[in-house]
Design brief:
- The complex is a heterodimer of chains A (49) and B (346).
- Chain A is mainly α.
- Chain A has one helix spanning 9-48.
- Chain B has helices at residues 8-28, 33-42, 47-71, 77-104, 107-132, 158-164, 182-199, 204-215, 219-243, 249-269, 275-302, 305-345, and strands at 2-3, 6-7, 171-174, 178-181.
- In chain B, strands 1-2 form a two-stranded antiparallel ribbon. In chain B, strands 3-4 form a two-stranded antiparallel sheet.
- In chain B, helix 2 packs antiparallel against helix 3 and helix 2 packs across helix 12 (305-345).
- Chain B is globular and about 60 Å long.
- Classes of the chains: A mainly alpha (49), B mainly alpha (346).
- The A-B interface holds A 9-10, 12-14, 16-17, 19-21, 23-25, 27-28, 31-32, 35, 43, 46-49 and B 56-57, 59-61, 63-64, 67-68, 235, 238-245, 247, 249, 252-253, 256-257, 260-261, 264, 331, 334-335, 337-338.
- Chain A: It holds the Pfam family DUF7512.
- Chain A: InterPro entries: DUF7512.
- Chain B: Its main location: membrane.
């Protein structure tokens, strides 16, 4: 197990920025998939409301 | 109930606030740092954590929004790359100016007043311009031209036409088939970088209108290219603050989860809502931000905590109203489009 606190500040910062980047890409892909499934019925509902 | 060391209520608050900011960020290409950082400060987080986490959040949101704008063909990478060069130099010069003012003991006051005046002036200009051009660029069909499409000369602001008339070589072609001097692009990037370095903000609220009014880049491409640039400035800022322990993932993660969803809606809305609406919302939001910062400055100066709370409420209200207006206009435009299609079919 790697002790995060024992890493140098630059590596810690790199890991944090990397984690944010990974979360951003995962969210982009995840919400993208959700949009493909959910968007057409939602748009149809808005247009017909 | 706690998750990752913070309460579920706080997580939901961050997700909700992130959603509003995401809608604004995806729609305008700005609004992350000047909304999130003051909110975190008022919530009691240390300045280092508020600024660092704000930057990490802006970085993550910019990544997501840039990917979306890339899919819509609204990022001019050549222009973005040049803007990054000019902006980086400008930011450094701006920081030197801040350190000089700090030595003189004038930094806080000068920066605060500059921030309020600049936000207010741009907000007034954009709102006035949008009100005066109301109906003229009301194409009703959105403004989602791709980066490679030619734009109508009537859509280019007069000031941009005047600036573009100065042809100092080398000239280059940017989005919309516009010919512009390389020195103009670097000059605008340097000036906006200078201001963002001086004010300690991402600078989207300066760069986006500067790209539109001074270079003549179509609004959607200005938004997409600005976001591309923020990926770099936000990433570097988050890294630097992360080295000092200023990035708290328990704040950034839920904010990002909300904003990723909001940014998707905001980015998609730029292809549905007409240009006049975009400009007036942008102007009103800047004016709201200007008033909020003025209250905060006055609160700090007079030692009145209540003014800081009013400032926080104004930021939240402005984010809620403007993001709500974006969603409302999008739904309205979609319904109008649907009705028009039905009428034509009949």
């Amino acid at each position: 197990m790697i002790d995060f606190a024992a890493l140098s500040p630059a590596v810690q910062a790199g890991v944090l920025v990397g984690a944010v980047l990974v979360e951003a890409v995962v969210l982009y892909v995840g919400y993208g998939a959700l949009e493909q499934v959910a968007a057409p019925p939602v748009i149809e509902t808005i247009k017909n409301a | 109930m706690e998750l990752f060391g913070i309460g579920l209520t706080l997580i939901m608050l961050f997700v909700g606030f992130g959603f509003m900011v995401g809608v604004l960020f995806g729609f305008f290409g700005m609004g992350g740092s000047f909304l999130v950082t003051p909110a975190l400060l008022v919530m009691g987080y240390p300045a280092r954590v508020a600024v660092g986490s704000g930057m990490a959040f802006v970085f993550g949101t910019a990544v997501i929004a840039t990917l979306k704008h890339h899919d819509l063909g609204q990022v001019d990478y050549k222009l973005g790359g040049l803007m990054i060069v000019g902006t980086s130099v400008g930011i450094e010069v701006g920081r030197i100016g801040v350190f000089y003012l700090e030595e003189l003991g004038l930094a806080s006051g000068v920066i605060g007043v500059t921030y309020v005046l600049l936000l207010g002036a741009i907000g007034l200009f954009v709102t006035y311009n949008a009100l005066n051009s109301d109906g003229e660029d009301d194409s009703g069909g959105g403004h989602h031209e791709a980066a490679t499409e030619e734009i109508d000369p009537d859509d280019i602001p007069d000031i941009a036409k005047k600036i573009q008339s100065y042809r100092v070589p080398p000239m280059m072609t940017i989005a919309g088939g516009i010919q512009v001097s390389l020195w103009m692009i670097l000059g605008v990037a340097f000036a906006t970088g200078l201001l963002s370095g001086f004010l300690g903000v991402g600078g989207g609220f300066i760069r986006m209108p500067a790209m539109f009014y001074l270079i003549g880049v179509p609004v959607p491409v200005a938004v997409g290219t600005d976001l591309f640039e923020i990926v770099f400035s936000g990433g570097i800022g988050a890294f630097l603050y992360g080295m000092e322990g200023g990035v708290d993932l328990s704040i950034v993660a839920p904010l990002l989860a909300g904003s990723a969803f909001g940014a998707r809606i905001g980015s998609a809305a730029t292809g549905i809502v007409n240009e006049g609406d975009i400009k007036i919302y942008f102007g009103l939001m800047l004016l709201g931000g200007s008033i909020a910062v003025a209250f905060r400055q006055a609160g700090d100066y007079l030692g009145m905590e209540v003014l800081s709370t009013v400032s926080f409420a104004l930021i939240m209200l402005s984010a809620l109203l403007v993001s709500g207006a974006v969603i409302y206009s999008t739904i309205k435009a979609m319904r109008a489009e649907s009705k028009t299609a039905a009428t034509v079919a009949e």
